[in-house]
Amino acid sequence: MVKVEFDPKKDQANREKHGVSLGIGNELDWNTMLVQVDDAENYGEDRWIGIAPKDDRLYTAVYAVLDDETVRMVSLRLATNAEIERYERQNQPQGKIQAKQRRRRSPRKGRHKGRS
User: Fold this and answer.
1) Nearest Cα residue to 56 out of 110, 97, 100
2) 76/14 Cα distance (integer angstroms)
3) What is the CATH number of the domain that holds 34?
4) How many domains does the chain have?
């Protein structure tokens, strides 16, 4: 089992930005997580991006590995539709875990001006 650590101030900021507590990281299914290196910037540490389920929702986590059993959570949010599709392609036996939970896109305004 993975132990998740996080800074309380970072948790508050994550709640405000994404509406999700970093503590949910303790409830993710780390065994089925789809992982890739986060090399967008030089953070001074190795960071990873993982997509993992909790119940019937998928979450995207950014974290640093501290040791064999502990990670430090940097960010946690609901997965985007593209991340959901990527996870489902990689984890076919899991099935479509979140198909009914996909975010609905609102229609673009002003796209078809003058058409009826």
Assistant:
1) 97
2) 7
3) 3.10.450.530
4) 1
pLDDT at 102 over 90: no
Across 17-38, average pLDDT: 96
In a domain, 8, yes or no: yes
Q: Looking at the domain assignment, is residue 98 inside a domain?
A: no
Range of the domain at 19: 3-87
Q: What pTM was estimated for this model as a whole? A: 0.78
Rounded average pLDDT over 46-51: 96
Element (H, E) at 18: helix 8-18
Cα 51 to Cα 76: distance, rounded to the nearest angstrom: 10
* Beta-strand pair 3-5/48-54: unpaired
